[in-house]
Amino acid sequence: MSFLDYAPAPESRAILSLRDSYGLFIDGEFVDGRGTPFQTISPASEERIAMIANANDADVADAVAAARRAYDRVWSKMSGRDRGKYLFRIARLVQERARELAVAESLDNGKPIKESRDVDVPLVAAWFFYYAGWADKLDHAGLGASPRSLGVAAQVIPWNFPLLMLAWKIAPALAAGNTVVLKPAETTPLTALIFAEILQQAELPPGVVNIITGAGDTGAALVSHEGVDKVAFTGSTAVGRAIAKQIAGTDKKATLELGGKAANIVFDDAPVDQAIEGIVNGIFFNQGHVCCAGSRLLVQENIHDEIVDRLKARLSTLRLGDPLDKNTDIGAINSREQLDRIRELSDAGVAEGAERWSAPCEIPENGFWYAPTIFTGVQTSNRIAREEIFGPVLSVLTFRTPQEAIAKANNTPYGLSAGIWTDKGSRILAVADQLRAGVIWANTFNRFDPSSPFGGYKESGYGREGGRHGLAAYLAPAPIGQAAVARSATKPAITADASAPEPAAKRPRRTQKATTKGSKR
Amino acid sequence: MTRLAVPKTYKLYIGGKFPRSESGRTYEVAAPDGRFLANAALASRKDARDAVVAARAAVSGWAGATAYNRGQVLYRIAELLEGRRAQFIAEIEESEGVSRAVAAAQVDESIDRWVWYAGWADKFAQVAGNANPVAGPYFNISVPEPTGVVAIVAPQDTSLLGFVSAVAPALVAGNSVVVVASERFPLSAISLAEVLATSDVPGGVVNVLTGSPAEIAPWLASHADVNAIDLVGAGALDWISLEVDAADTLKRVLRPENGQDAAAPALGRISAFTETKTVWHTKSLR
């Protein structure tokens, strides 16, 4: 064994007690779906994990109706204090079942256990903990006194951070007093279904959270259902654009967290050791399946060769393989479809004249894998510099002056995130000012915290998740005339607001919906 | 044959330990009907000074913990208090001579206030702080920081609720406290200290003195290593003199409040014990 060899150290799967098949979680119970069930597999081995119910339009309607009933009868009438207590319970249960959730996540998604265990799941608990505390403090959310909830939120999430995206969606929605129908991604439904069991343990009132599984058509049926008041979507810009068109002209509010092509800018005075680690973390974290990944490395020209050499050396030490192994750095690509897309774009990079280098690592026989890859000599017009690859592929470009770095960084339809590496604080702040991106990391990358707003400029979507902004995304100001009503800090708005009449403008849309029956007010 | 009960010795809570008063003094705590309940420690000036030393030593750790961590610890207090609900209800019933229902309401509200303030730990800075659009190429941001050691004269009319209502907000931002309990109803304060001692609250962050506020408060008000004093329960004392004493070291002062709901939940009780720090940094592309 050389010093880079490790004995296998797989995390035990014994902690899991999975069912053979999972239904839809509607109105507090698991029920059969009426679509054709599908299987969820481990992308590292292609073995079947469980059969998953498929929600058709009727199931979607049931879920929305359950959420509406729970909103009208229970959740919108409950005090913020009690809503908060439910969320605190959920946070604690997630903490208590953290290891089980981490193992399930790595099994179903393919991400390394050290990431699901140390990043995803702890952040899930933190998200619920943070928003639990907001539930009885909505007067301070930034919308004036006594803001009101929106109603039923339709939430569709991606496969890259399955449980974490669930937490980003559900925690603020519930804190603000909304009820939820959430659809996890087709390839990663497992942890959402375990989470449904947690909701049962927490005794969350039935219907407050409904989790329906299925593919894109289920998601489309959900966001277009007319009983939905709020749409929250994380995923591709193409789907986000379709949702924005679909809800145009309706009263539905939307938060869209879409694609990215982040620039990671390295100046020649950057702390190089930290920068190398930051670049690696920026693009190879979670196999590059990160919307805010630092996929375009902009290096100041005079240090280009040094940075690239050191990156190659560092990537050669990364360990690709079993996601459940505690020493694994790079796990499996989430699906064959995604692997095909990465290969296609990567080949386009070569065809357009960029130079490809891949880390020399052994690729397992089964499953979906892609070795960490760097492209040098990339032109700004190349597809690999413009399109989101969503995989472990880094495109390296150069610049000479800060102005050129800024121009190149902003030369994209996306605007989710960016990184800046330099020892000069004044330069960090001046460059950050001019970058058109929603999150700027300086001398770090891929940091997330429930108190910190996250979201994009331009075609990376709109709205923010996290922090006070993420809470406000699930609230509307009090109807005019009601804001002045003083309420004590511990007995906040929602109780009284729930019985308040809706603004006149919303009424016509409500009454024309005979199909959603008496479940709507 | 009935079992003979084992009564608890009520002591002080300083630096995470439960010492007797260094003075050796105690005073009798009686139920409203005059029945003897316990001997509580009658804290001295030296005890108060020891408590300030312990509190000062604890500030850097508590203030340096992440806001998320402080929130979790404060929430943990609520969890453990909930687990000892029956004990506190019984103690308050006896001490205050109130019905079980009234005592239970006091305990429940105390638990919920810990939860409310726990939630503020990682949100307060977002509400009280802000970026400032100064007219120049500068990054400029203002954030609240804890002031340091806060001395508190707890509300005197309740066993637990007033005590919790005064202590919890001071802890949110990262201060440590020295609190003088209700002179008449000191027992629940010491029982709460047992909860704090097992709630991951670092030793010295909360220090509890029982005894005579009239005797101890002046020493705290004039102590040079105390940054702020909450006189919420000092209404029956010569609180103006205390405020004058506090002025010597320019302490932040909260004034007395009377009634059952003294120290009602408010953001102002958190901000009263914070300092605003504004940071400037140049912006330049060069």
Sum up the structure in keywords.
heterodimer, A: 521 residues, alpha/beta, Aldehyde Dehydrogenase, Chain A, domain 1, Aldehyde Dehydrogenase, Chain A, domain 2, seven-stranded mixed beta sheet, six-stranded mixed beta sheet, globular, B: 286 residues, five-stranded parallel beta sheet
Fold blueprint:
The complex is a heterodimer of chains A (521) and B (286).
Chain A: E1 21-22, E2 24-26, E3 29-31, E4 38-41, E5 48-52, H1 57-75, H2 80-96, H3 98-109, H4 113-134, E6 148-149, E7 152-156, H5 162-176, E8 179-183, H6 190-201, E9 209-211, H7 216-224, E10 230-234, H8 237-247, E11 253-257, E12 263-266, H9 272-284, E13 296-300, H10 304-315, H11 336-351, E14 355-358, E15 373-376, H12 383-386, E16 393-399, H13 402-410, E17 417-421, H14 425-434, E18 439-442, E19 461-462, H15 467-472, E20 475-476, H16 494-498, H17 507-511
Parallel strand pairs in A: 1-5, 7-8, 7-10, 8-9, 10-11, 12-13, 12-17, 13-16, 15-16, 17-18
Antiparallel strand pairs in A: 2-3, 4-5, 6-20, 11-19, 14-15
Chain B: E1 26-30, E2 36-41, H1 45-64, H2 67-83, H3 85-96, H4 100-120, H5 124-128, E3 130-131, E4 138-146, E5 149-153, H6 161-172, E6 176-180, H7 187-197, E7 206-209, H8 213-222, E8 228-230, H9 239-247, E9 252-254, H10 267-271, E10 274-282
Parallel strand pairs in B: 5-6, 5-8, 6-7, 8-9
Antiparallel strand pairs in B: 1-2, 3-4, 4-10
Helix pairs in contact in B: 1-8, 2-4, 3-4, 4-6, 8-9
